[in-house]
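Figure 3 (text version): C-alpha cells given as input.
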C-alpha cells in the first residue's frame, strides 16, 4: 500500500465522505425513478382496453379525464427522441429502464462499500498514529 502522511489520509477521508454523499444522492434519485417507473407501469396495465374515456393520474391524487383515440402511447426513449408504442411495447421499455436503474443502484452500492472499507481502514490507521504520537513513536501511515 502507498504510504500516506496523516494530512493526506485526512484529506482522502474528506474526499471519500464527499464522494459517498454524492453516490447516496444518486442512489436516492434512482430509487425515486424506480418508484415512478413502477407507478407508470401500473397505470398502463390498468388502462381499460378499447375504452374511450379514461382517468389519467397526473400525481398527488389528481386525475385528468381523457378520451383515448389510439391504443398507443408516446415514449421518451432518450436523447429527446419520442416514439409511439403500443402498451405492451411501452411496458417492455419501462421494464428495461427499471432493470438499468437497479443495475446502477447495485454498482453504486458496491462503490459505497469499497469507499466505506477504505475509510474505516484509514480511520483506524489515523487512530493508531495518534496513539503512537502520544507515546512518542510516530510511524508513517500506509
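Below: residues designed for each position.
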Amino acid at each position: 500500500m502507498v504510504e500516506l502522511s496523516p494530512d493526506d489520509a485526512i484529506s482522502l477521508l474528506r474526499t471519500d465522505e464527499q464522494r459517498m454523499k454524492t453516490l447516496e444522492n444518486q442512489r436516492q434519485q434512482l430509487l425515486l425513478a424506480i418508484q415512478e417507473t413502477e407507478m407508470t407501469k401500473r397505470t398502463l396495465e390498468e388502462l381499460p382496453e378499447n375504452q374511450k374515456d379514461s382517468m389519467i393520474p397526473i400525481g398527488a391524487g389528481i386525475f385528468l379525464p381523457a378520451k383515448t383515440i389510439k391504443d398507443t402511447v408516446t415514449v421518451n426513449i432518450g436523447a429527446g427522441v419520442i416514439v409511439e408504442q403500443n402498451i405492451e411495447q411501452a411496458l417492455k421499455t419501462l421494464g428495461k429502464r427499471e432493470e438499468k436503474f437497479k443495475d446502477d443502484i447495485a454498482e453504486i452500492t458496491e462503490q459505497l462499500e469499497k469507499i466505506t472499507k477504505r475509510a474505516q481502514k484509514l480511520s483506524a490507521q489515523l487512530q493508531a498514529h495518534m496513539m503512537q504520537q502520544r507515546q512518542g513513536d510516530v510511524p508513517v501511515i500506509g
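The chain has a mean pLDDT of 88.
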